[in-house]
Amino acid sequence: MTPLEILIRERIESGGPLSIAEYMSLCLSHPEHGYYMAQTPFGREGDFITAPEISQMFGELLGLWVVATWQALGSPAKITLLELGPGRGTLMVDALRAAGGHNEFIKAVDVHLVEMSPALISVQQTALEPAAAFPKWHATLEDAVNASEGPLIVIANEFLDALPIHQFVRDDTKWFERGIAVSGEKLDYVLSETPADEDVQSYCEQLSTEQGAVVEISPAVVQTAGDIASALCARGGAALFIDYGYEVSAAGETLQAVQSHDYGSVFESPGETDLPAHVNYGAVAGAGLRAGADVLGPLAQGDFLGRVGIHQRAERLADTNPEHRDSVAAAHARLTLPNQMGTLFKVMSFAPKGFVPPAFTPQSDA
Q: Given a cut of 80, is residue 133 above it in pLDDT?
């Protein structure tokens, strides 16, 4: 039993079942025992590998997208580049290296990172120490927005999937929130004793009327997306969300546990296992629209990367490093092919009304 599981059991015994959102928050963000707080789970030696760790091409192309966005904004003398959840800093390192050839951009850019993990901040500081634009760190999105100025370019790669969700289950004719309680010797799911409020009932009923159906709702995702859209409308700029998820709101259970590149029970080793959930891009889009932003996409990741030049970049890398041709081809395939990350991952952009970021078109479906 992990130290965090002991703490979770004590909280349940004293205060009753935890919501899924409370459980996720404790497992991922507890100051002492949270999954992200004291370790670096990314990369081949960690529990999972993200796109920037697969190939330098990913971060480089995002860096060029950022420069192209800055140019489309009129090359302002001051621009804020903000990354949410920077992992080991790999994406930002590659992005700034690719952007380094544009001297005026490097002079204009002010880099900010939102990161709550002391362990990861230390890794990011080491990785980014040689960077031309040394970043500033913040614990929250609000802090980062308030501490920066100028138009805002936001990158959120595999960030929204880690934000807490609530789950609701249809039992008979009503929807009840799913919680976590102690059952015998183990943690297990339990339903609330009273039905969810009428707004939740109405929303869930639109998605499914099947007995036992599960609907996931994330106020944290909606709040984050809305706050980013509001900042963009006030300051100008663009945001890029990259995550695995579904385009239209739908019933279904997506919460999973990831450890050592494999899946397991969400109750196994709390605090030592990642707990992501698929992103509801329909909800993300709705939050952006309500805040007054234009919503572009989502595009399949493979489509987006193709539009920003990954095929040409892969050919160039292979020609320059023929001894790595096979590994470049494998990385290119993993990032772009439909049976790998190419369609599972989606890319959505927010922008103020009338501004179309590079690689997107006004006709893209929201």
A: no
Q: Give the Cα separation of 103 and 347 in Å (integer).
A: 28
Check which CATH number belongs to the domain holding 86 and give it. 3.40.50.150
**Residue 272 domain flag:** no
**Residue 32 domain-assigned?**
no
Looking at the structure of the chain, the number of domains it has is 1
**Residue 215 contacts residue 251 (beta carbons within 8 Å):** yes
Q: What range defines the domain where residue 113 resides?
A: 51-163+221-250+279-349
CA distance linking residue 264 with residue 57, whole number of Å? 31
Which pair of structure tokens corresponds to residue 170?
Answer: 């249809």
Region class of 156: left (phi > 0), else alpha (psi between -120 and 50), else beta: beta
- DSSP structural state of residue 254: -
pLDDT band of residue 318 (cuts 50, 70, 90) is: very high
Q: Across the chain, what does the average pLDDT equal?
A: 93
The answer to the question of residue 12 being in a domain is no
Residue 46 has pLDDT above 70, yes or no: no
Contacts of 207 (CB under 8 A, 6+ apart): 213, 215, 249, 250, 251
Report DSSP state, residue 270: T
- CA of residue 269 relative to chain centroid, distance: 23
CA–CA gap between residue 293 and residue 231 (Å, rounded): 10
User: Residue 349 burial (CB < 10 Å; 0-12/13-18/19+)?
Assistant: buried
Q: Within a domain: residue 192?
A: no
80 vs 153: CA distance, rounded Å: 6
- Distance CA(216)–CA(244), nearest Å, equals 15
